[in-house]
Amino acid sequence: MKHFFSILVSLSALFTLTYCKKKEQPKVQQPNVLFVLMDDLGYGQFGIYNDTITTADFNPFFVSLVDSLQGYSLEKSLEYSQTAIPNLTKLAKEGVTFTNAYTSSNVCSPSRLGMVTGILQNRWGIYTNDDSEQSGIRKGTHLAEKIKASGYKTAHIGKWHIGQRNDQILHKILTKHQLAKDTNFYLLKPTHPELFNEIRESGYLGSVVESQNPLNHGFDYYYGYNHWASQYYNSYNIWENRTHLGKQAGYNTDVFTEKAIEKIDESIQENKPFYVQLHYHAVHDSVELKAPDKYLKKFNSDSFELNNFYAHLYAVDRNIEKIVDFLKAKEAYKNTIIVFTSDNGAMSGGSYDGHKSGSPLPGNTPFSGHKGNYYLGGFRVPFFIHWPNGIKQQKISNSLVSTMDILPTVLDAVGTKIPDSIDGKSLLSLLNNPREEKIHDYLLWSGVHATKWGYLIANSTKTHADEDQFAPPAWVVIKDNYLLRFTGKIEAGLYYDQMAGRAPVLELFDIKNDPSETRDISKDHPDKVKEMKAIYFKESKNFPRPIHWEESNWHELKKEKV
User: Fewest C-beta atoms under 10 Å: which of 307, 424, 529, 531?
Assistant: First the structure.
């Protein structure tokens, strides 16, 4: 009997020990997330895609303009696209690089809205920048709210541009000067330069209405601007939470990075996971202002414009390296997801009303077009995800994906349910699957097909200031290796190669074998045209009227007969 009790006690102790050990096992640690978004970075300018590209692949019209206007070395432009990003290249090669990724729009504000909500913004009547700026983000739709609710410290740093400006700031100044509240701010510059500067220095351009402030959309901290740009130096567009900061000191790529590190450090000290959106101004308008010498000295071609653009890109690369080094020092690197992409294609080449020019080659090579139009170069973008703890097998993926998939992927990774009603999908299963996996059967777009944001403006009788007001509407469907694009009526006298005007057209391209869209194969594949056209009209049936865009464009997009 004594022996029996001894065995019973031993078994009881063993059971208790085993139970306690199981109970004390730590939970799987939620990953940190750093979402890096660049402004107007082209597919071809991000050199990880250029292993097989030569200068012969450059768009010939773009090249002709370079030869006649700027004269930089085509070979140097290709070289710099690769040498400007050593750290980003390393991160991309250690993670999953997507070669078939698209934004939800060819311009920045609608694209960013689709990106952070996971919802195709056309479903809200948003087709253009003006639509987005006049509407802004809807309450409860930024997926960062769900990330914050999962226990994360959240911060948005840099470009916001998905909210309405605070017009009360403008109205107060106009009233003080006895001017009507509906006075056009931009028209004041030549007639009332002092008043123009007063408004600019008030922070109005970078302001956001309270209801659309990041602090009311899932973020604990905000340091940034609600405008399409905030120049590298001396900008008056920066706000911190709800306070205008006056003139910003320093080079903003460096400043934004320091703010990101500061917020990351706070999260680590509090032992909480972080979600940080680091949305740089670079490389928007990047040939205007000289990059700091510490970045510029790396590039020594005969062209300042070429050197300067890639210096600004190199600055981002070095700053991401700084964050990575910080994460490693804090032992947080391996469990941090780093997402990197661009909001649309490059604003490549072109003349901007005589005072600046767009970014250089390779631009969006091997694709035609640029920001603002629905050639592939306008909305196919660089994209990679890096996560040492979560990605065990590095790969290059050709799956059809969207930047609307980014935050659903983050939600999945942090263990939060993805809303059923959104267009974005989780890419998490794709990250560790050695085989390709279909995420989307197709993607679609609606909006303006404009030339103002790049080299194609040279083909227009209009200027950067107004071409988009006359540009035709377009819709696009991409499925498998095909792109179907409808382009609306072109009025006479708008484009030099179509001076008599042109009726609407429906074109089909094999984008795998013809990425520059040179051969319309719609007559050879009528069944494919019919199939993809049906997809668009089924999906777009309930797309509402545009908030600001000329309504006749919307009506033209709804016509099924071409």
Answer: 531
Listed in sequence order, the residues at least 6 apart from 455 whose beta carbon sits closer than 8 Å to its beta carbon are: 59, 61, 62, 65, 348, 349, 350, 358, 363, 370
Nearest Cα neighbor of 102 from 121, 89, 115, 85 is 115
In sequence order, the β-bridge partners of residue 96 are: 385, 395
Q: How many CB atoms lie within 10 A of CB 213?
A: 20
Cα 413 from chain centre: 21
**Domain ranges within the chain, ordered by starting residue:** 32-165+219-232+248-438, 444-557
Distance CA 406, CA 397 (A): 15
How confident is the model at residue 383, as a pLDDT?
98
| Element of type H or E holding 356 | none
Geometric angle at alpha carbon 331, from 326 and 335, rounded to 5°: 100
* Dist CA 1 CA 90 (whole Å): 69
Measured CA to CA in angstroms, residue 28 lies from 107, 223, 414 at distances of 39, 31, 10
β-strands 101-102, 401-402 pairing = parallel
Instruction: Kindly give the residue spans of alpha helices, DSSP state H, lying in 276-421.
Output: 293-296, 304-329, 406-414
Q: What is the dihedral of CA 380, 261, 386, 147, to 10 degrees?
A: -80
- 445: β partners: 476
User: What is the predicted pLDDT for the residue at 356?
Assistant: 63
Assigned CATH topology for domain 32-165+219-232+248-438: Alkaline Phosphatase, subunit A (3.40.720)
Q: 241 vs 116, 185, 225, CA distance in Å? A: 19, 25, 10
According to CATH, the topology of domain 444-557 is: Arylsulfatase, C-terminal domain (3.30.1120)
Low pLDDT (below 50) residues in the chain: 1-2, 4-5, 7-11, 13-25
Q: Which two tokens stand for residue 90?
A: 């390393």
Name residue 159's beta-bridge partners: 225
Instruction: Please say whether the beta carbons of 149 and 219 come within 8 A.
Output: no
Determine how β-strand 221-225 pairs with β-strand 153-159. parallel
Count CB atoms within 10 A of the CB of residue 150.
Answer: 16
DSSP secondary structure, 77-136, as one string: HHHHHHHT-HHHHHHHHHSEEESSEE-S-SSHHHHHHHHHH-S-GGGGT--SHHHHHHH-
Alpha-carbon distance of 383 to 339, in angstroms, equals: 8
Take residue 355 and report the two structure tokens written for it.
Answer: 């005072």
Length of the chain (residues): 562
CA angle 120, 40, 348 (to 5 degrees): 120
17 burial via Cβ count (<10 Å: 0-12, 13-18, 19+): exposed
Per-residue model confidence (pLDDT) at position 358: 85
pLDDT value for 71: 80
Report which of 128, 153, 127 is spatially closest to residue 221, judged by C-alpha positions: 153
